[in-house]
Amino acid sequence: MAGEKINYEYITEYLHQILPETTGYLRAMEEYANKNDVPIIHKEMKAFLEVLCKVKKPDRILEIGSAIGYSASCMALACGNCCQITTIERDSDMTTLAINNFEKLGLSDQIRIIEGDAVEVLSCLTSKYDMIFIDAAKGYYNEFFEYAINLINDGGLIISDNVLYKGMTAEDSIVKRRQKTIVGRMREYLIMLCNHKKLTTSVIPIGDGVAVSIYNERGNDIE
Ligand SMILES: C[S@@+](CC[C@H](N)C(=O)[O-])C[C@H]1O[C@@H](n2cnc3c(N)ncnc32)[C@H](O)[C@@H]1O
Question: N or C: which end of the chain has fewer CB within 10 A?
Fold first, then answer.
């Protein structure tokens, strides 16, 4: 089994072909990310997030893992200026780049970035969100989730990126030895998400795999 890609190469290439090219400053951010090996959301994931934003119309979004602020900017632009986004990043160079990018896109009033380790920052947050996008260290999704579940509004979406982790989550034979722990944790995370009594979850094999979970405060068993 090949690993690395979670979908047939020809499907991914086709999706990349039919989706429109990004233009303007977002395009410059993509080029910066490519040149500097900054992992940002895949093209098909960008389109999917934009659809979710337009369907859900969230007033408040929380993002865990900002990098240069690309996905936060995409969500802000898709939602329009009624939506407030809080994004968390532990790397100070990334934080500086993201702040600069938000300014260039005119999104500084809409996006607040908090620099710090997500677990520490999350433990200080109290207001709730309509959408939470988890896109940081894959080995810590379970810890992030413990906070996310208390910060999501009833009917809100928890979106977890990279859950199939280059296919390794689904298949033992392609798991690299040094990734074993992270893969084990991601498997536990997905099983928990899929079986959580207050969540309805769908795992979608686009990009690096994304799980979308809807939170139902009363629980799924109640009619
Ligand atoms: C995949 S990148 C985020 C990409 C971004 N969401 C986008 O698509 O434009 C992951 C980011 O999460 C940050 N990160 C990883 N673990 C973190 C943690 N525990 N707390 C805060 N940030 C973290 C990394 O520094 C990195 O910049």
Answer: C
